[in-house]
Amino acid sequence: MIPADLRFRDDELADEPAVSLDAFLDQDDAASVRIEGGDDVRRLIPVLERVRLVEIDFPRFRDGRGYSSARILREAGYTGELKATGDVLVDQLLFMRRCGFDSFAPDHPIAPAVAQRALEAYDLVYQQAADDAVPVWKLRHG
After folding, report:
1. What is the pTM of this model?
2. With the CA atoms of 119, 48, 65 and 34 taken in that order, what torsion angle do they form, in degrees rounded to the nearest 10?
3. What's the CATH number where 13 sits?
4. 1 within domain boundaries
5. 2 inside domain
């Protein structure tokens, strides 16, 4: 079962389309922003309190800039929805989740059971990330 805090193609905010970063910063009433590969997500930090949804696009699965953008936002205190869109592959879900993504809109559908197996593939982690998982080295050394 997919954890309750993870969503695929959530239409809750469908009537509130995400706008580009520049458009978001120029508007006072926008609440959803779309981050493209070359955008500097740090420009959002001063206005995080008015952001409800951040969509981070993955134009190709091998483009890792979205992971950095997600982690920057979570470390800056962003608590709203963080959605990975585009070329999102099932084997990336666990790592995206660790970087702070809580919803996904992949170009190609992923079956919920397959997604669940991917998210539960590893019980232990080796690095600290944006999630609350305790690295195994910390568990060993108290």
Report:
1. 0.82
2. 90
3. 3.40.50
4. no
5. no
